[in-house]
User: What shape does this take?
Amino acid sequence: MSDLTVRTAGESHGPAVVALIEGLPAGLPVDIARIDADLARRQGGYGRGGRQQIERDRAEILAGVRRGRTLPGPVVLVVRNRDARLDQAEPVFRPRPGHADLAGALGFLDADVRSILERASARETAGRVAAGALAKALLAEFGAEVLAYVVRIGPAAAEVPADLADRRRRRDASDLYSPDPRADAAMKAAIDRARDAGDTLGGIIECVAAGLPPGLGRHTQWIEKLDGRLAQAVMSIQAVKGVELGLGFAAAERPGSQVHDPILYDAALGDSPGLGFVRPTNNAGGLEGGMTNGQPVVLRAAMKPISTLARPLPSVDLRTRRPEEAAFERSDVCAAPAASVIVEAVVATELAGAMVRKFGGDSLRQMKAAYEAWRRAAQDLS
Ligand SMILES: Cc1cc2nc3c(=O)[nH]c(=O)nc-3n(C[C@H](O)[C@H](O)[C@H](O)COP(=O)(O)O)c2cc1C
Assistant: This one.
C-alpha cells in the first residue's frame, strides 16, 4: 500500500537523532544542502539557549539514496549530536511544571526524569525537519510549496503581506522568522524582557501550503481526513497547544454567511491548481470535508512558553516528596522561530503523504503520470 511514514529515534544527548522515512517514490532528487539549510534554520532564531552554539546540525544519508535520488526502500537520515553525554548527564529529580518530567516519571516508573526529558526534548525534531525537507522536495515536483513563519511573540504581532514570495523573502531576512520587519524589534524586546525576568515566551506560527491539487485527503473515514491529520502532526510538536485551520476559532463567532467561501468559476483559470474554481475568500483554510479544496491550506499553531525557567516554579523532589524548586538546565527563552521550521516540516510531510496516498508512490514517474491523468479527468466531470 502506498503511504508515507516518518519515525524518529534518538535522545537529546545521545549520539544522534535518526529519521526513518518510508514510502517516498523512487527517483526523487535528494539535495543534502536543502536538508542542511532547514536543519540550520531549526537551530537558529532569536531567543535560543546555549545548546545551539554547540551543535552544527548536518544530515548524513545512511540508506535509501543512490547518486542523489531515492531508491525503492526506506531512507535513513542521521543528525549527529556534538553534545553527546547521555551516560554522563546528571540525574534530575525535580520535575519542571509544563515539561514531560512528572507525567513521564509516573508513567514509566522512574524518579530520574532524565530518562524522560532526553526523548521529550525538541532535539528529536531535527529528525522531523530533515524528513520534512524530502517531503518539500516531493511537493515541489508537483508545483506545491509550504511556508511557515512567526506571526506573534508576546504582545508583538506581524502583519502578513499578501504575496507568498514576499513572505518568504522577508521571513528569510528576519532572525525572528517573521514576515514583517516592523514587528521584529518589538518581538526581540519581548524576548529580552522575558530573559531579564528569568521567564520565557511562546508564540503563534502560521503555515501556508500553496499549489496543492484539490481532493487530497478523504472524507470517508475519520483517520483519513487531512484536517485531522494535519492537526495531529502539528499538535505533536513539543509545546504546541493549539492548532486552527483558516478562520479557526473565530468562525464560531460568525454566522455562516460570513464564514463560508462562495464558489465561482473562471474558465481562464482551468489550468491553475484550483482547476478554475475560484473562492473569493479562504476562511476554510483550503480544507473542506477533510480534503484540500484548491485554495492554499492555511494553518496556525499556538506554542506555549518554554517550561524550563531560570526562576523556577515550585516543584517536589520525586525521591523525598519534599518541596523544591524545579530543575533548571540550559534552555531556550523563546523557540517560536525554530518551531516554525518544524511546523513547515510536519505539514509538508503530511501533505506529501496525502499526495502519495492519492497518486501512488512507487516511482516519481508513475506518480506524475497518475497526477496528470487525474487532472485531465477532473477538468471534465460531466
Ligand atoms: C524548537 C523547540 C525548542 C524547545 N526548547 C526547549 C527548551 O530549551 N527548554 C524546555 O524546557 N522546553 C523546550 N521546548 C519545549 C519542550 O520540549 C516541551 O514543552 C516538552 O517536551 C513538553 O511537551 P508539551 O509542551 O508538548 O506538553 C522546545 C520546543 C520546541 C518546539
